[in-house]
């Protein structure tokens, strides 16, 4: 089975790829660069290079809910995405397309439908993104992660599979060097990093390093150069404090298991893939939802984490360096209260296998129809 995988959410895609590549030929169609107007290679592009998966760049327009200087150029780039998708799919002639959502998958799925290539869509969130709502009309099946998102998709196409989490989060493969005897804080803005979180941490990093060790994943956007800014701050610290701060553009798959296992507190955004991992690991966290996420998606995710008792959240508009220090100290000393029974309602075992089964079922139906 020849499969094209597309979409902007690499964590669940990676879980499926690791199993699917054993029995299928895989191609990835996605964004080569993390942000519009930036020249930094995306995490998905780097992962495909590491896995030896052929990567086809799709440069297309984002369906934006917030007006920026890139909005107008983005609208005019959508036809470009359609043309590149049409040429690429015609050349690859895949048996099926598996989309993990987002604007990048929209032109691929529209063209796949027009070329009579079956499409399976996976929605990670508790609701539904704008692109995914559109894609669902072209899809043969829609896999959802939460029962709450079922109402946004055609009932006869929709199946509950759950949201796959990376198996690497359970495996300790590479240790990072942290001074012993200190509580460890892992700070992440997701694969692209968060300039807001990075800028807040930059103001308080000397203070929190007095008490804690910090692993800070900044992303590698050249628009803000957060890694370089924080690295300069680190180099001006006293030697013993420098050793307490680990700066990374990305936390790689073979590093994430150790980081999660040893982190006493995780600070980050509340994208659904991060939240799914925190829930399955029962990992104590302090979340700062992205304020302009579509349909208030990240705020909903943060509220779910709070409801389950594994963390708390601050809205970005309320965050100050002083408040952030206070919350960090509070959360480090707080005991979380949750149960496996509660979290199992939201994290399903073998979600990746369930998605692959849906994929195979759609593929077999296509083959059977061709024989008639």
Question: What count of domains describes the coordinates?
Answer: 2
Per CATH, the superfamily of the largest domain is: Glycogen Phosphorylase B
Q: What portion of residues is helical?
A: 40-55%
Q: What order do the SSEs take from the amino end to the carboxyl end, as H and E?
A: EHEHEHEHEHEEEHEHHEHEHEHEHHH
Structural class: alpha/beta
Strand order of the largest sheet: 3-2-1-4-5-6-7
> Can you count the beta strands?
13
| Integer-rounded radius of gyration | 21 Å
Which ranges are low-confidence, i.e. pLDDT below 50, for 5 or more consecutive residues? none
> What is the molecular shape?
globular
What is the structure about, briefly put?
With 372 residues, the protein is an alpha/beta fold. The chain has helices at residues 10-20, 43-51, 71-92, 105-114, 130-135, 195-209, 226-235, 239-242, 253-262, 272-281, 297-308, 321-333, 340-343, 351-371; strands at 2-6, 25-30, 54-57, 96-99, 119-123, 141-144, 158-160, 183-188, 212-217, 245-248, 265-268, 285-287, 311-313.
Report on the structure:
It is a single chain. α3 crosses α4. The protein has 14 helices and 13 strands. The model has no long low-confidence stretch (mean pLDDT 93). β2, α2 and β3 form a beta-alpha-beta unit. The strands form 2 sheets. Strands 3-2-1-4-5-6-7 form a 7-stranded parallel sheet, sandwiched between helices. Helices cover 42% and strands 15% of the residues. It is an alpha/beta fold and 372 residues long. It folds into 2 domains: 188 residues, Rossmann fold (3-Layer(aba) Sandwich); 174 residues, Glycogen Phosphorylase B (Rossmann fold, 3-Layer(aba) Sandwich).
């Amino acid at each position: 089975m020849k499969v094209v995988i597309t979409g902007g959410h690499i964590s669940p895609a990676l879980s499926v790829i690791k199993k699917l590549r054993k029995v299928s030929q895989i191609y990835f169609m996605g964004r080569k660069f993390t942000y519009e107007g930036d020249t930094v290679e995306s995490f998905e592009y780097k992962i495909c290079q590491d896995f030896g998966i052929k990567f086809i760049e799709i440069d297309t327009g984002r369906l934006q809910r917030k007006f920026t200087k890139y909005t107008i150029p983005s609208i005019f780039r959508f036809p470009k995405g359609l043309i590149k998708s049409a040429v690429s799919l015609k050349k690859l002639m895949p048996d099926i397309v598996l989309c993990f959502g987002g604007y990048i998958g929209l032109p691929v799925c529209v063209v796949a439908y027009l070329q009579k290539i079956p499409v399976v869509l996976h929605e990670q969130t508790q609701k539904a993104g704008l692109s995914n709502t559109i894609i669902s009309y072209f899809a043969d099946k829609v896999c959802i992660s939460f029962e709450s998102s079922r109402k946004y998709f055609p009932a006869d196409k929709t199946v509950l599979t759950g949201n796959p989490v990376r198996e690497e989060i359970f495996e300790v493969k590479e240790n990072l060097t942290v001074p012993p005897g200190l509580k460890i804080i892992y700070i992440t803005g997701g694969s692209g990093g968060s300039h807001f979180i990075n800028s807040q941490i930059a103001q308080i990093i000397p203070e929190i390093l007095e008490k804690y060790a910090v692993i800070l994943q900044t992303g590698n956007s050249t628009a803000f150069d957060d890694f370089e800014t924080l690295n300069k701050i680190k180099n001006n610290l006293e030697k013993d404090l420098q050793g307490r701060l680990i700066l990374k553009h990305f936390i790689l798959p073979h590093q994430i298991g150790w980081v999660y296992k040893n982190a006493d507190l995780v600070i980050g955004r509340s994208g659904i893939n991060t939240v799914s991992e925190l829930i399955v690991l029962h990992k104590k966290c302090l979340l700062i939802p992205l304020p302009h996420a579509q349909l208030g998606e990240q705020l909903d995710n943060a509220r779910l984490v709070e409801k389950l008792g594994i963390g708390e959240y601050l809205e970005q508009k309320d965050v100050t360096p002083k408040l952030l220090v206070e919350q960090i100290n509070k959360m480090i000393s707080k005991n979380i209260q949750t149960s496996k029974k509660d979290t199992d309602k939201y994290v399903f075992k073998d979600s990746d296998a369930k998605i692959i089964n849906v994929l195979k079922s759609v593929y077999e139906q296509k083959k059977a129809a061709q024989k008639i």
